[in-house]
Amino acid sequence: MSVNPMAYETQFFGFTPQTCMLRVYIAFQDYLFEMMLVVEGVMLKKLDGIPGCKISPSQIRKCTEKFLIFMKEHFDKLFAKMEEVLLQLVLKIPENVLLPEDRVHEQYPYSREEFQALQEEVRQLQQQCRAEAAAGQALRAELEEQKAVRAELEKILQCFDGLENICREHGAGNFKESFALLTQSSKKLQDVLKDVEEKSKKMKLHNQL
Questions:
Q1: Could you read off the pLDDT of 86-133 as tens digits, one per residue?
Q2: How many angstroms separate the CA atoms of 118 and 11, rounded?
Q3: DSSP assignment string, 32-94
Q4: Is 94 left (phi over 0), alpha (psi -120 to 50) or beta?
Q5: How far apart are the first and last CA of the chain?
Q6: Is Transport there in the keyword field (predicted)?
Q7: pTM over 0.90
Q8: Burial of 83 (0-12, 13-18, 19+ CB in 10 A)
């Protein structure tokens, strides 16, 4: 069998020419074996009808096997010639023939260096796409976080609005002014507590002396 890969022919036919020839060879060989069995069966019937025949079935089988070996040797020689002719003249695409799907290479020829440059450009574009996808995912995550923070802020504002309504109902005036006054009072209280703690510390020191 031929060892030429015949890649272009495989692209056109959809199968390797060598595989095609192998299947033809196997088919012919199977038919040869079947024919020998038919011939052997006919001979057994003919000899069985001859009275006094001393040829046994085992002898006929040996003769059939010898004849099969002889036929197979000649068949292999003939098939080798047939395979050479078919692979060169029938299943081979001439070098000057271009398949339709490859005509684009004829219209836009590229050298190896140009092809490598295109591959590098494609690789860089893929990296940019991945980076942009990651950035988009990060932005979406930030937007979700901002939505959550905004929801919490809206809850706080609703709480303040509720407090302001309560203050108005009880005549406390403006909630913002009340909250500012409460903050000042709290700060004054903290100052008083701090002053008391300092005076307490001084009195303890005085008592120890």
A1: 888 888 888 777 777 776 666 667 677 877 888 899 999 999 999 999
A2: 24
A3: HHHHHHHHHHHHHHHHHTSTT----HHHHHHHHHHHHHHHHHHHHHHHHHHHHHIIIIIS---
A4: beta
A5: 117
A6: no
A7: no
A8: buried
